[in-house]
Amino acid sequence: MPEIGEVARIVHYCHKHLVGRTIKTCEAFADDKVYGAVGCSSDAFQKHVTGRRVTGAGQQGKYFYLTFDKSPHAVLHLGMTGWMKFDAEETGYYRKPDAEEEEWPPRFMKFLLTCEEETVEGEVRAAVQSAFVDGRRFARIRLVVCEAEEIRNVTPLKENGPDPVQDKDVVTVEWLSALLGRKKVPVKALLLDQANLSGVGNWVADEVLFQARLHPEQYSNTFSEAQTKQLHQSLMEVCTIAVETRADSKQFPEKWLMKYRWDKGKKGEVNKLPSGEKIVHLKVGGRTSAIVPSLQKKTGPVAGDVDGENEVAKPAKGRKAKRKVEEDEDEEDVVEEKPVKASKRSRKAISYAEDGEDELAKPAKGRTAKEKVVGDEDEDEVAEEKPAKASEKSKKTVSYTENGEDELAKPAKGRKAKRKVEEDEDEDEVAKEKPAKASKRSKKKISYAE
């Protein structure tokens, strides 16, 4: 996901090719998610942007904006894979585009801006086209009505925390210390929460914590004054360099973890720093975190040290696993869920919270297993039930609750096995009988409880 440095790159090219220019045409393409999710529409965007002169471009964390000579203005979020492309030059930051990506106009466009050749402040500016693209549709495009200089004081930017680079006068050591003390969550989750800080994403948070020599799982309210100062210094340095280099990793310092975090080398080798320290990957706040355990020591309580509080949920694994990403997600709430152990093929975590009490339900195992949920069930009685054992091929648990009495019935084994149930059976007499022995092919176990 584009973070503070990548967004700074977009803003750089917007200044270079759009600011001071008049948008001759704007062709917007309908998308009920990219536009509709934030109360905008492609028709409205096209109408209000066409003919406008771009007066400025800026950012706040993961958001960037374009201001015009007349309200409304555009505020955009890149989501997971969004990007701004220009036909005049390549704007990518980490790899050379393939032939398909170099085609113009590009695929997955959400809007296409066209500026004709014009003279701006005595300088002849060549014609240029710019396209906003997003294949996964997590990006967001909206219009905001306000004065250009007030754009950061209206929704959605006002709901986000300060930008470590744009708001250095706000993000002080004292400010960070107060923020850490107000929360009781893993420090990485705190850094990722955009309501706390704007622009810090997964790799930036990992780099900040590595440079500060802090463990990502340690609770935010457990750091010493010296550790807080180190965290602040690392935060400001990493974010500033990311912005100044416009996320070009080739320009990052050689001491940075980012240079080695995904370099696993030959088969069988593990990630490691040039000095030999091992790099491991773990889940914090539902995100993969790179950490060097020999350098990032735990000096206080971490998420796993407290039962039932602030534990990390692991997302499903596998190529086909899908992850739901919501804009402005409250990551503090996400990390408080406790994962449920399930089969590798279908790891599902279901958490229920009511009146301050949390329960974790384990989904049935097997591809065809189904769970029956009955409303208004007596939870006190159900909690005392002991599940019946069934065959591995078809584990089924059937519970019956009536008048405060619970029974667990086990289905017969074998495809041809049948169970005869008689109505109005005298259970007192049957309970005294000794069950007959069945053949190996159709063993039947019948239990009666009263």
UniProtKB/TrEMBL annotation:
GO terms for biological process: base-excision repair. One of its GO terms (cellular component) is nucleus. Residues 2-139 form the Formamidopyrimidine-DNA glycosylase catalytic domain. GO terms for molecular function: damaged DNA binding; DNA-(apurinic or apyrimidinic site) endonuclease activity; lyase activity; oxidized purine nucleobase lesion DNA N-glycosylase activity; zinc ion binding. Keywords: DNA damage, DNA repair, DNA-binding, Glycosidase, Hydrolase, Lyase, Multifunctional enzyme. Residues 437-450 have a biased composition (Basic residues). PROSITE patterns: FPG_CAT. Pfam families: Fapy_DNA_glyco, H2TH. InterPro entries: FPG_cat, FPG_N, H2TH_FPG, Ribosomal_uS13-like_H2TH. Gene3D superfamilies: 1.10.8.50, MutM-like, N-terminal. Residues 292-450 are annotated as: Disordered. It catalyses: Hydrolysis of DNA containing ring-opened 7-methylguanine residues, releasing 2,6-diamino-4-hydroxy-5-(N-methyl)formamidopyrimidine. Residues 384-395 have a biased composition (Basic and acidic residues). Belongs to the FPG family. This is Formamidopyrimidine-DNA glycosylase catalytic domain-containing protein. The lineage of its organism: Eukaryota, Fungi, Dikarya, Ascomycota, Pezizomycotina.
